[in-house]
Amino acid sequence: MPSRSYLRIKALIDCLMAVILLLIVMIPFSILTLFLACYYRGNPFYVCERAGLLGKPFKQYKFKSMFDSSAGELDSDKNRVSPVGKFLREWSIDEIPQLINIIKGDISFIGPRPLTCDYIAFYNKNEKRRLEVKPGLTGLAQVNGRNTISWAEKFKFDVAYVDQFSLKLDMKILIRTIRVVLSREGVDQNESTTAERFKG
């Protein structure tokens, strides 16, 4: 199990840094929120349920990047992603509202990416270990391929993160995340902007 002392220290640092960053981006955050509300003619946020620490459900916030599907239509995510949404995803700007999740204690800056709760039923015993720490905005898998690697590889990185849980590893991931975001490395998978759904 990860060190409880570092878990507590990390949670405190996460909250403090998230508050500071949210204050810094408050003006552009507000402008973008108003723009997206007009662009999509409705809610500028995408809210979905994700599995948090030990599988506890929480509401994840993101800037909306897709048009709503028409009634009765089952459009793929690729077809529904808006031009603005594609830009937001490429630069990870759609993730900014998750600063609120960090302040609430739902997630951390660094950790396995939060996935939908229904995925838990498909995890094997080892894969479930990814739930032993809070999910994060970025993680070991995100700086080692992001959406271009398989689910098996992602889970391998997630479990490795749990096993090596430390400040040193978090700092390495943070530094590499900056490089990945600026280079937009691993954004697409087979020219799509959304990773393939996990089916076990």
Automatic annotation (TrEMBL):
Family annotation (InterPro entries): Bact_transf
Keyword Membrane carried by entry: yes
UniProt keyword Zinc present: no
Residues of the Bacterial sugar transferase domain: 10-182
Keywords: Membrane, Transferase, Transmembrane, Transmembrane helix
Name of the protein in question: Sugar transferase
Organism for this UniProt entry: Listeria fleischmannii FSL S10-1203
UniProt lineage: Bacteria, Bacillati, Bacillota, Bacilli, Bacillales
Residue ranges of the TM segments: 12-37
